[in-house]
UniProtKB/TrEMBL annotation, chain A:
The lineage of its organism: Bacteria, Bacillati, Actinomycetota, Actinomycetes, Micromonosporales. This is TolB-like translocation protein signal peptide. It comes from Asanoa siamensis. Pfam families: PD40. SUPFAM superfamilies: DPP6 N-terminal domain-like (SSF82171). It comes from the Bacteria.
């Protein structure tokens, strides 16, 4: 190759560059033309509210939508509010949405989906929750690049009190203890908050040293302590006695997760009837039903439900949707 | 036969290398261009991969992290294999080209892997293998194409071009995302095309060896010859210095995490810490390479240790805000600029031509494995003593390692 004159080699490399540029440009333009539109599920644009009603809130095609609880696979109402993750309770909504192609923000929505507060959040949206009263909101993002083994990810979990505006940017600020000993390890990560009825107690996952613990937190005291091992993405039942969560099979997340329920009184774990690996923070759709997102082979989401007792069978609830939240006020009502 | 430039190591360039405009040879510029183009391609993917995995495929990134970590140790060892094979078949260009081509194909592999975690893990592994294969032969080509007294600036210029590519990559990815309606596939295809262009530049412009240097080809080295490299006291001492450098390094993640906590900069600005370090590296790599050729590479390497110790001390000192942020990032970038290429420039002349890539791979792998162990140990120290005490201990380690390195490299009163 080096036998060629410089002129020939320069022409050759320019030729290669032009061909490759054309290929790339054609592919980019083709991709722009193929950008997916709505997948045809019966949907009507219309006003979506967070008022207590027998409806299920979901994210459909990255937009907040509602569907009737009595006909969850039927027509749904899709709002213009774009969210990657959403949740609502007590008339308050939280929406994690793109701010730029690289960055996301957390937006608090009122009953009419009007943004009342927003904050930029670091990393990629992962979990979102609202307390039953609608006072507290929490979110989790994945942040790349700051893990000490490069290529790994870490998480950031924040909590906002919508009444007085107090914000915890990261749960890492709190004092975390495991069996009474304060955990200072740099590798500790928190994710998946769920709130109790007193708007002060909460549960979350803490990961450190290869273990993922269920933590019970006290917002006012800015502290957390371990409750159980191998509990991820907790979701507190409306009566506050049980935790639905994803349970890493044999303690190894690479083998997938089994949806399970933990009794907080006895610490007994009941695996649920869903045997597919569930990577989601479950939501209580009623006192005895769990809702969660499952993905098809191509990544398209569906909302499923399964009995919290461990019996029965999983049921496809809302096709082509994710981030389920029951708006019928069951959580607020039972918590009193 | 074995030609070792012991006498010329660290000799100032004065009198010999006054070639004015020709800062570095054409082969180094060609290799720098290949690295620049390839880094645009690689950083395009690095920038969007988290978005793709989490929001495109909805995979759990924590599981991905587990997959990713497994290959780090394996590729460090593959580097030695790549170096040795390149020497054995006398084909540095072919091995480097194979490495670049492997990484290019991996970009398309991302399309084929779909949502399969094992598939993505495999593709990432192939990409890493490509990087592991090409690094030592490429650095060997730089040393073989450059007079020993100009190695510092040759590596300085090469690393600067590399860093420019790393800077441009995320910007190109952003433009492709915007132009393609947020299509990750379009980013991967474009990245593949850019990587192929890098391979084309390598094939057309990089020479296996400058014509003037091909007096008599050295005999094909055997494994025994490769092992015999370690009998050279000078190389053993440099290898030890490389390991010490790895031991003194706690890793970007910890440095940035502490900076973020100490300066209380918003979590949102966290990624910019790496950008700040890269900027300092980009600006300093070439000037420090030139300086290394003039005042001696060992002195510049030791200055790198000093910069690392200063970085750690700043992280442990009772200052905060900009007064901490700017000096700490500058010192950290200085540490990289004073050690990365300079270590290779120091190693090159110690190695016979026929085992150049093998020797460079040994030095790089020694440093990488020591760093891997050191970052785990630092994590334990952080848990046990807290970040403040741990970073002061790291500063102590850096100072002791720097002092020991000085003793090793200035052994037997070699003059600088």
């Amino acid at each position: 190759m080096n036998g060629m004159s410089v002129r020939v080699r320069v022409l050759a490399v320019l030729g290669v560059a032009v061909v490759l540029a054309v290929v790339a440009t054609l592919y980019i333009q083709g991709a722009a033309a193929r950008t997916p539109s709505s997948d045809g599920a019966a949907a009507a644009a219309g006003p979506v509210t967070l008022d207590a009603a027998p409806v299920l809130l979901t994210v459909t095609d990255r937009h907040v939508a509602t569907v009737s609880t009595s006909d969850p696979s039927g027509p749904r109402t899709v709002s213009g509010v774009e969210c990657v993750r959403a949740y609502a309770a007590g008339g308050t909504g939280i929406c994690l949405q793109p701010a730029t192609p690289w960055t996301y923000r957390m937006v608090v929505l009122d009953r009419t989906l009007t943004p009342v507060r927003s904050a930029d959040i670091p990393g990629l949206p992962n979990r979102a929750r609202v307390s039953a009263s609608g006072r507290l909101v929490a979110w989790t993002t994945f942040v790349g690049g700051d893990s000490y083994n490069s290529g790994g990810f870490s998480t950031r979990t924040g909590i906002l009190d919508t009444r007085d505006g107090t914000m915890v940017a990261s749960l890492e600020e709190f004092t975390a203890s495991r069996d009474g000993v304060v955990v200072k390890a740099a590798d500790r990560n928190f994710w998946g908050v769920t709130f109790a009825a007193d708007d002060n107690t909460f549960y979350a996952t803490m990961s450190t040293g290869g273990h993922r613990y269920l933590m019970k937190g006290d917002l006012a005291a800015r502290s957390l302590h371990t409750v159980a091992d191998n509990v991820e993405c907790p979701s507190l039942s409306p009566d506050g006695t049980r935790i639905a969560f994803k349970h890493a099979i044999d303690g190894d997340p690479t083998r997938g997760w089994r949806l399970s329920v933990l009794d907080l009184g006895t610490l007994a774990v009941t695996p649920l009837a869903e045997t597919a690996s569930v990577d989601d923070q479950p939501a209580w759709l009623s006192g005895d039903t769990i809702g969660y997102t499952l993905r098809q082979g191509d990544g398209r989401p569906d909302v499923w439900s399964v009995p919290a007792s461990g019996g029965g069978a999983p049921r496809l609830l809302v096709p082509g949707a994710e981030s389920p939240a029951a708006l019928d006020g069951v959580t607020a009502r039972t918590n009193g | 036969m074995i030609r070792v430039y012991l006498s010329t190591i660290d000799r100032p360039a004065a009198g010999k290398g006054r070639r004015g405009a020709a800062l570095v040879g054409g082969n180094v510029v060609a290799l720098g261009t290949v690295s620049l183009v390839t880094d645009v391609s690689a950083e395009m993917v690095t920038a969007v991969l988290p978005l793709y995995l989490v929001l495109g495929l909805h995979l759990s990134p924590l599981a991905y992290g587990v997959v990713d970590g497994v290959y780090t140790g394996a590729t460090a060892l593959l580097r030695i294999v790549g170096g040795y094979v390149a020497d054995r078949v006398r084909g540095h260009k072919v091995l480097a080209g194979a490495g670049y081509a492997l990484s290019a194909v991996a970009k398309l592999g991302l399309l084929a892997a779909g949502r399969s975690l094992a598939g993505i893990g495999f593709v990432v592994a192939v990409d890493r293998m490509g990087k592991g294969l090409r690094t030592a032969p490429r650095d060997a080509l730089i040393t073989l194409s450059t007079p020993p007294d100009a190695l510092g600036r040759a590596f300085g210029v090469h690393r600067t071009m590399d860093a420019v590519g790393a800077f441009l990559g995320p910007l190109v990815a952003l433009a492709v995302l915007a132009g393609s309606g947020q299509s990750y596939d379009a980013v991967f295809v474009t990245s593949f095309c850019v990587a192929l262009l890098g391979v084309a530049v390598l094939v057309l412009f990089v020479r296996e060896r400058p014509p003037s240097a091909s007096v008599a080809a050295p005999p094909r080295p055997s494994v025994r010859d490769a092992v015999a490299l370690l009998r050279s006291g000078d190389l053993r001492r440099l290898l030890l210095a490389a390991v010490l450098l790895g031991v003194a390094t706690i890793g970007d993640g910890f440095v940035y995490l502490m900076l973020q906590r100490r300066t209380e900069i918003g979590l949102l600005w966290f990624p910019l810490l790496a950008v700040g370090t890269s900027l300092a590296f980009l600006l300093l790599a070439a000037p420090l390479g030139v300086l290394a050729d003039r005042i001696g590479r060992r002195l510049v390497l030791l200055a790198g240790y000093a910069a690392l110790a200063v970085t750690y001390l700043l992280l442990g000192a009772p200052v905060g805000g900009w007064a901490l942020l700017v000096p700490a990032l500058a010192a950290y970038g200085l540490y990289y600029a004073a050690t990365d290429g300079v270590l290779m420039a120091l190693a090159g002349p110690l190695l016979p031509d026929g085992l150049r890539a093998t020797g460079l791979a040994l030095v790089q792998t020694g440093q990488a494995l020591a760093y891997l162990a050191s970052s785990v140990l630092f994590g334990l120290a952080w848990s046990a003593w807290g970040p403040g005490a741990a970073v002061l201990a790291a500063a102590g380690v850096a100072i002791v390692a720097g002092g020991t390195t000085a003793g090793l490299l200035f052994h037997k009163g070699r003059t600088a």
